[in-house]
Amino acid sequence: MRFGKCGDSDCAVELCKILNDSGKAVLFVDSVTSELLHWWVGEGKWICGVERILDLEDKNVVHKAKVIGNAEKVVFLSGSLLRGDRLQLIQHLLAQVCSSSVSCTSSSVYSTLPAGSHAGVVAGYSRESDEESPFSVLARQLKRIMLKSSNGRKCTVGVHHLPALIAPVSSHVFFTPGHTSLQSLLPTDVARINSHLTSQRDQRQASSLATVDINMLPDTVRQHLKCFCHSFSELFGDLGVQEHCFSLGPTSRLVAAELAALPEARARHKVATSSASVLFVDRSLDLATPLSCNPETLADSIRCTLPALPGHTADVAVDMSSLLDVHSSCRHCIAPGCLAHPSNSPSQTLLSSFVNRKTKDALTELSRRMVEAISAEKLPVDARRMSAITPSVLRGLLAKFKCQSGAIARNSALLQLAMAATTAMESKATVELQRTLSVEKVVLLTLSEEGFTPALEQLVSHMKKAMEGVDGLDASGYLRLLVILFSAAGDVVLEMSAGTQTQLQTGVEGIIEYACNKNEEFVTKLIGEKHNSDSIRVFVRTLISQLLGIAKSRSHLKMFKAINSSTSGPLLQQVAEALASPDKPDLPDVEYHSQYMRNLLKTGFSLFMGGSKPRPTDHPLLIVFVLGGVTCTEAKTIRDQFASARSSVEVIVGSTALLTAKSLLHQVCCEDSLYDVHI
User: Fold this and answer.
1) pLDDT reading at 4 higher than 60
2) What element of type H or E holds 50?
3) Vertex 552 angle, CA 248 and 443, to 5°
4) Degrees to nearest 5, angle at CA 584 with 580 and 585
5) Fewer CB in a 10 Å sphere around the end CB: N or C, the chain?
6) What is the value of pTM for the model shown?
7) Rounded to the nearest 10 degrees, how much is the dihedral formed by the CA atoms of 301, 305, 311, 312?
8) Closest listed residue to residue 314, CA positions, set 326, 323, 324, 302
9) Which DSSP letter does residue 623 get?
10) Does residue 190 contact residue 212 with C-beta atoms inside 8 Å?
């Protein structure tokens, strides 16, 4: 079973049909639904029946809606809950379009979040009503607005669910654009959760993350987790699969328990014809691996070096101007290329090799495809065998297409992927990553051989040399290495002396102030343009508290307590190895969640049940889902472990986001896992 063939694709095709048959339609779309359609359909084919497209998140969208013209239909695509500011904006835009266009007689609102997610947020909806859904209540409210704005003109209004949760990067790797702000909690969040409960006059208090219930969380993160569970449940419903939920980590425990307890999940267990396991894993258990400067896949190398495609979290913007005869001052007029070309099967296969294979193998495949395309276009090609695929070799192959408009058009997707790989390999950022990697290796070697304190002192010493003008890293590089060190060290960090902590505080304050004086972009975003010694001191104290929470994140684990040491690898590699092992070792850190098992325990039937503890590999399909983001290198590692063990289980890797080291560092340093959550 591959997600590339599941119900989301059918939904995107159906939406295209709706738009294409709608005549003069005006489409309002937000970044979430735009990114979903980008990965499912691509190349703008989903807009071919649309008169005009406007960005729902554009601050000037209301003004732009005043000059719509004679629209016959207005369509809204929303990746957020239809409540609050988003609902008010839709109501205002609907009234605006209907009052300015005498031809508008139809409106459709599509939400990627299911009706069940809206049950507690739609005004006028009663949970006790069996006759209507939250969407029908919303449709009735919007129809009143439409009738009023069009002076009673006959019209139709519909509010529908667009079941598009996942964006497939390859047939076995996906992410969820609507849930990229979800993060896994840290032990240091317990005190803040208790403060929130106290502010709500709630007598409950948590002693640790293990005792936190989903209903103890602040409204924003609680609502987001519940929406995520409803959407994931619907995905399994569309697939006709009975899911078995497992968790590794406290936040994953909340999600798995909530998903298993949903009424539709319990009903699905009675009628589903196939079964699958889903293992949720907390990202916070291992931040060292995704922050490492040693990507093993070409996709990660590209995403670490190229800028993000505007409005997107996973795809990149590829400068294609070098293939065209344009002046350097006009390069911004050329639309950027990208990685996603879902309607082009050969290019999707090539992108899968970028994601799932080693960089060397992916480059070999890329050069083979380029030579084939050059031959097919009857362009001159060097027949000599290429000993190594270097940036200059790829640049030479790309040069064959320069100003060949017909050949460029016929091979557009391939050329965009080739240009992305070439640009990444030539990038100065790649050189900076190699410099950071060399320091990372030394620090981790010291951690392994001498312990945490010598490794930390070595890193702080490196910072001081950089401040003295000795060739060093930028501040973001040192912050990245700090997170790697604390995450890899684990519980041993708690033995850090007061003197060592003071030394750390002084060193980080110094490198931050040094970076501010040099106007380093990343640090400016962290501290703000207006900063002083006090604001830097407060930031560093907060950062150290965050680092201590990261170090304690695996303190409750038994089997997967150590990572990236001389005897253990990255967390996800260890987990995959244990799951795929034919010896089936016990998994004390993996928790099974099942409403069915809970009912058996209540009735006492568990006394008569034999057999071993359920395992994620008991079913033919396993989804490993990382809450907080995953890299393509990690996805490859998980699948490689199952392949080397010759396991018959099909493995799909999913996450809330596709990570780069930069995006994860921003998440750790700048985002609040309890309050910087939006849905």
Assistant:
1) no
2) strand 50-55
3) 105
4) 110
5) N
6) 0.92
7) 10
8) 302
9) E
10) yes
